[in-house]
Amino acid sequence: MRSISLFRLFYIHHIIGMDELDYILRELVGELDQSHSVSIPKFLEDKRKLMRYLTNLRPPWPVPEKLLLAQDAELARQLAEKEVVYPNQINSSSLDPRIKLWQGDITCLAVDAIVNAANNQLLGCFLPLHGCIDNAIHSAAGIQLRLECNELMKIQGHPESTGSAKITSGYNLPAKFVIHTVGPVWLGGFHVESELLKQAYRNSLKLAVARGLKSIAFPSISTGAYGYPIEEASRIATKTVVDFLENEDKLEQVTFVLFSEADFQIYAQAVEAILTKNEA
Length: 280
Ligand code: AR6
Fold this sequence. Notes:
Elements: H1 2-30, H2 44-57, H3 65-80, E1 92-93, E2 96-103, E3 113-118, H4 133-141, H5 143-156, E4 165-169, E5 177-182, H6 193-210, E6 215-218, H7 230-246, E7 253-258, H8 261-279
Parallel strand pairs: 2-7, 3-5, 3-6, 6-7
Antiparallel strand pairs: 1-2, 4-5
Bound molecules: ligand AR6.
């Protein structure tokens, strides 16, 4: 009996989910100029992919409340299928318990704030299904994130400077906040890139402290699309964080999040090098 009712629950959940997803897709496709040229796929994974594709493209237009509710329910279902990771589940460095390293997708972390490697527009990545972190964060947070960024940018009235940072809510992410910072594009190292990268980390940390946050997670800023050599970037990132924490006792945890095993090893070495040097 028990297994039948569980099966029914799953079935109902699945059907409601599929209906809601179809509704979201119809609404998003209806906003397009050439809505007739998009066909709604049959399978769940393809529908989810199309939802991400369409929200990536979507300008910061107002959203009907019903669409937002359906989107939030769908993103909650997607999150429930991921493994959310809490700060106490992440290993600390043996040399400093406040410094942590973690390999994986930053959108799974339930820290106070995750940092986004944004661009000067600060509206998220508009390239559908692009593999950058900006795309991953906006897709998992939902349409509201671009709307809030757009409000901040309208008030500011000019593009975000490289090295500065802004904070928004995390919406459907497990993290409460997103700190958006703009790292430098690597231009051979002749354009104060190292100073700008340092500022991106420092300004994000300062914003976290100003908001009274206890845990923050950084990706490897600028080392993807912006081409910064990762060994040098890892030394700047880890030194900036360690120096900052020397004079700061309110921030309890800083996690470096690396997507690949190779990047993880590079940051692990950089963390060890800077902390052993400080101990010596
Ligand atoms: N979780 C953790 N790390 C990630 C994830 C993820 N989900 N996705 C990517 N990374 P990039 P940038 C890593 O290119 O170099 C965007 O289009 C990735 O492996 O995301 O600062 C913006 O809009 C790499 O190590 O950021 C800007 O235009 C790191 O995140 C531009 O890219 C940064 O890669 C910013 O370029």
